[in-house]
């Protein structure tokens, strides 16, 4: 029984706990109010269970009544004074109590409550009761706090406007945005009058019929406090009014001045930029349009994408004819490949410069100097029209050539005087000697005839040398360079020099015994030495000593000026030394200049030393000149050593080969030459038959006479010597032919001119040369 | 914004609000008896601003012309008290006070008197209560009606005290389910304001000790 009662009690207690728990849960769920009643005269506070729970007090005690000080139980310390003050107000006669404050719960957590109460007065206005209730607003506070922070941190103001109302509910932040005193309610007019008259108002006077989101509206305002102009934006939604029939606009506003300013700045910058781009484009366009040079944009093969008007101006036609074509298509046909090559180069190397002719529509060429530069797949082409420059260049070249020609003519004039003088001297020698010989022959005094004949011969040889030099100078004959025995050559010249220099000059010819062979033209070397010897003679009008020596030397680069030496080379040095008047430094400097002469006009050609110089240069050697006024001059020729065999066929003067009755046909229109040649041939033991021209010669050949050799002048009247030779060979295929020519031009193309079994001898020649040549030719044929 | 050396801290503002609330509650009680209708009055907040600010505050918050009941006071603190309504609200208040049975003409005719009487009750109670609570006494002049913009109301005080500060309060009327918004402005010079601040501090000490 007792156990049963105990069990029952336990069950009831459990039920009660359950009920209490359920109650708590219900209260929690309902968010029910916690009511209180403060009995002022009796100083008793009663409260319901919810009030007790919120203030962490015993519900049973509170329902029975507790001291009024328990009203302040659990109120956070920070809020105590404020609430006590408000309650004091009520107890002193204030009617309305409306406060938010914090309650600290047993577990230390904090809840926000809103206490709303009022005083109840007795008949004589004394306060009887203070009643009210608590509502837990923690969540609401949290949301409010979040909203407040969101507003202040984001500088976003909120506002609400219900349809038909003249006022708008605003947040503090909203007021701050507009520079208004913070408040909750503002007249619509107050808000809207701050907005720029041209912009949409903050609060729309007319609301739409249906709820909908509103678009983003931007507007300018004048701040109420500072008068500052700001940009604001608002956005929001039209929603059903919870408490009224119409719509309500709930919106936010925020300051966008800085972004607007940035936007504005950016816009201005953009405008400025596009303006400057436009301007630059205009500039470029102007350059493009007005340029007198050809400008074009092409693809990488030269197809013209765009061309400026200069193209049409320079090449004729219309610009539309040019665009779309290849640059090479517009080129002068011969230059098309050149242009195409220029394009290949500019594409591979990034740029190219070249000149080409372009074809004008009238079919004539235009010279253009191109610069092409590549950027990616595009090539920018710049062309300058240079036809005029090209013409001027050509005209200039022509003028220069004319100038050179006239200078040459002037030189020839000067030369002629000198030559005439030399020739007169030589002719006087020859004619005088011949005259004396003729008279001695007439008188039968033959004993010293030979002396005059020698003199005539020497003069004639000098004349021959001079003409040879002139021809060499005028024709620029290439040197016939071959290994030459210098020692033999110098020794061989002794007689000639002796005769040329006269008795007042003592001649010493001292070639070194071991003298190397040199690679040079033997004839030219003789000429050069003769020239130098004659100059030396002229430098010693009162007589003196002239020496010609040779040395073998090894020279290194720079040792002799004007000498091109690779490392170390071997040379034969030939010095011509006199002890005459010498040369001053001024003269020395000009000594090698053509036509420079110290002799009076008509006494020298001025070609001597310059010829020597040119000869040495062409030989791969050099000339060195040393001179002191009053002491004499030494001129040294350096000729490269030849390592080949010496030419031993030089001047075997003593032996004149004789003929053996061979039959020779002589074709020469000049009677004296013909006479001489025939005489010589007969003297040498040949049988000579003469003809004056080709016809005569052919007639002789047809007479079926056997001829071993035909000697013919090249320059015959009618059929020339070469043609005659062809005909003669037709008749007599084995016939040898020796041409006599006065023109070095023929000799230049010797190999082309001569066929097998033919040879040539230049006028003037001495009889010894002729004899040797004939003998040589006939010997080849018979051997 | 206050532009003065007088700054009330939060608690002082609460205390002042409470004192004013006691005053308006008494006024409401008087009005209830006068008009035999339910009348509730409350003052949610209070601030101290300069006259210029007060003018601009009202200017911003009210777009229409204003009507004010003015009374001078003198004592431990001296100055001028204004009970301010927007014109339309003042008419509404007059009608609410007079009752629905009054005709439009009557309302228009008696508006000034009704306002002056209502204002007198409210301001007297407010200032009187303040003086009582602060254990001081005040002498009050007769009420006077003035109309015009906020600027005009606050510059109307032609006296030299340009530096005068304004104790600026909102007041919510609830008369027969009509809510009417208004303002109470008490213009005081600096010494008066300083005296008031000291009195309030004393009051705070007293009530927070007493209560509980």
Describe this structure in words.
The complex is a heterodimer of chains A (783) and B (212). Chain A is an alpha+beta fold. Chain A has six domains: 31-136, Beta-Lactamase (2-Layer Sandwich); 142-255, Beta-Lactamase (2-Layer Sandwich); 291-385, Beta-Lactamase, CATH 3.30.450; 398-477, Helix Hairpins, CATH 1.10.287; 480-640, Heat Shock Protein 90 (2-Layer Sandwich), CATH 3.30.565.10; 663-782, Rossmann fold (3-Layer(aba) Sandwich). Helices cover 43% and strands 26% of the residues of chain A. Chain A contains 25 helices and 30 strands. Mean pLDDT of chain A is 82; it is low at 646-654. Chain B starts with 9 loop residues before the first helix and ends with a helix. The model of chain B has no long low-confidence stretch (mean pLDDT 80). In chain B, α1 packs across α4 (104-133) and α1 (10-35) packs across α6. Chain B is of the alpha+beta class. In chain B, a hairpin with a 3-residue loop joins β3 (66-75) and β4 (79-86). Chain B has six helices and eight strands. The chains are: A alpha+beta (783), B alpha+beta (212). Chain A binds chain B through residues 68-69, 71-72, 80-82, 84-89, 91-96, 98, 119, 121, 125, 166, 180-181, 183, 185-190, 224, and chain B through 1, 10-11, 14-15, 18-19, 21-22, 24-26, 28-29, 40-42, 44, 53, 56-57, 59-63, 129, 133, 181, 204, 207-208, 210-212.
Order of helices and strands of chain B: HEEHEEHHEEHEEH
Averaged pLDDT of chain A: 82
Could you give the count of β-strands of chain B? 8
Provide the helix percentage of chain B.
40-55%
Query: Main sheet of chain B, how many strands, which sense, barrel?
Result: 8 strands, antiparallel
CATH-level-2 architecture of chain B = 3-Layer(aba) Sandwich
CATH superfamily of the largest domain in chain A: Histidine kinase-like ATPase, C-terminal domain
Rg from Cα of chain A: 66 Å
Q: Tell me the name of the CATH homologous superfamily of chain B.
A: CheC-like
Please tell me the CATH architecture of the largest domain in chain A by its name: 2-Layer Sandwich
How much of the sequence lies in strands of chain B comes to 25-35%
Structural class of chain A: alpha+beta
Number of strands of chain A: 30
Span between termini of chain A: 178 Å
Q: Alpha-carbon distance between the termini of chain B?
A: 37 Å
Q: How large a portion of the residues of chain A is in β-strands, by DSSP E? A: 25-35%
